[in-house]
Amino acid sequence: MTRPNDPWVLIADIGGTNARFAAVSRSTGAAGAPVILPTKGHPTFLDAYDLVLASLRDRPGLCGMVLAVAGPIDAGKVKLTNADWHIDTSAIAAATGIAAVEVINDFEALALALPGLGADGVEVLQPGLAVPGGNLAVVGPGTGLGVAGMVALPGGGWQVLCGEGGHATYAPETELEWRVAQELKARHGRVSTERIASGQGLLEVAEILGADASIVTPAEVVAAAEQEASQPCTAALRMFLTAVGRCAGDVALTVNATAGVYLGGGILPRIAAVVDWSPLLDAFRDKGRNAERMRRIPVRLIVDPNPALVGLSARARAIFARV
């Protein structure tokens, strides 16, 4: 139970589409019910912060913030890759009077959540055989494509490896993939995996393949593919899933994720009830001489509605020891 005047930390999972805020109190150590705001519906982080604080005005004792942001971080500063917000921890501390302000990559927060996700927070796509003490990896398409790893430390604990893996160069293999990649290169100058394995990528690939102009959202691409109403949408969804699986397999090999690979992000959990996972798993396993190794790696879909908040809560608990 939260106590009156209990010190608390504001956590936020800030993506290109939505920002999810929650309070973590010292007494519970867990995130409360999230407040969800559209990122593009507010000019700056501080505008959204003011609204969130207004909804929590009966909660004195704010002592810190931990913000998970979709974008590369440089000395506490970051411009969201797929939105206009600029996050600067020094500026936020000066504006709010809160000294303990941290910013981490959104997939670092998701990676921190992996050890704490229970059976009800995941769906098993490939049982595999987890190696005790092995590393973990997480890959997830949404507004962009996030990638992170968790390295098991000797004696227990984890070290997060986080970067911008979604921007690694896309590697087409089939004739259709080459055709799509050539068109994307003509449009954008370079083709990263995120150009295929993201919401915008799914929509753009469907358009390149000849989808009807009335299809204007990723959800409509998925719906048309599910209903077998559009061959271009069916092909685009298959290419999307293949790109995610191929990327997940590459990351698993790179960080030696023998304890498991998790799939997250904003798209995959939403389409889990209607999608055929075969293209994704086939691409994940298609690693030549490492194919049998890939079959042994557990693959799980994250279905927890707010997994990054689980990881941010762990980071918030460390702040209480310092303030």
Describe the 3D structure.
- The protein contains 11 helices and 13 strands.
- The protein has helices at 45-55, 89-96, 106-113, 175-188, 199-208, 218-226, 231-255, 268-271, 278-285, 291-296, 307-320; strands at residues 8-14, 18-25, 35-38, 62-69, 77-79, 86-88, 101-105, 122-126, 136-141, 145-152, 158-162, 260-263, 299-302.
- The strands form 3 sheets. A 6-stranded mixed beta sheet has the order 8-13-12-9-10-11, with helices on both faces. Strands 3-2-1-4-7 form a 5-stranded mixed beta sheet, with helices on both faces.
- Strand 10 (145-152) and strand 11 (158-162) form a beta hairpin.
- Helix 3 (106-113) crosses helix 11 (307-320), helix 5 (199-208) packs across helix 7 (231-255) and helix 6 (218-226) packs across helix 7 (231-255).
- The protein is globular, with a radius of gyration of 20 Å.
Features:
323 residues; Nucleotidyltransferase, domain 5; Hexokinase, domain 1; six-stranded mixed β-sheet; 11 helices; 13 strands; 22% strand
Fraction in beta strands: 15-25%
In the sheet with the most strands, the strands line up as 8-13-12-9-10-11
Radius of gyration from the CA trace?
A: 20 Å
Q: What is the number of beta strands?
A: 13
The major pleated sheet works out as: 6 strands, mixed
- Shape field: globular
Helix content: 25-40%
Structural class comes to alpha/beta
Number of helical elements = 11
Mean pLDDT: 92
Please trace the helix and strand order, writing H or E for each element.
EEEHEEEHEHEEEEHHHHEHHHEH
CATH fold topology of the largest domain: Hexokinase, domain 1
What CATH architecture of the largest domain would you give?
3-Layer(aba) Sandwich
Give the N-to-C terminal Cα separation.
Answer: 21 Å
Q: Unreliable segments (pLDDT under 50, ≥5 consecutive)?
A: none
Assigned CATH class of the largest domain? Alpha Beta
The total domain count is: 2
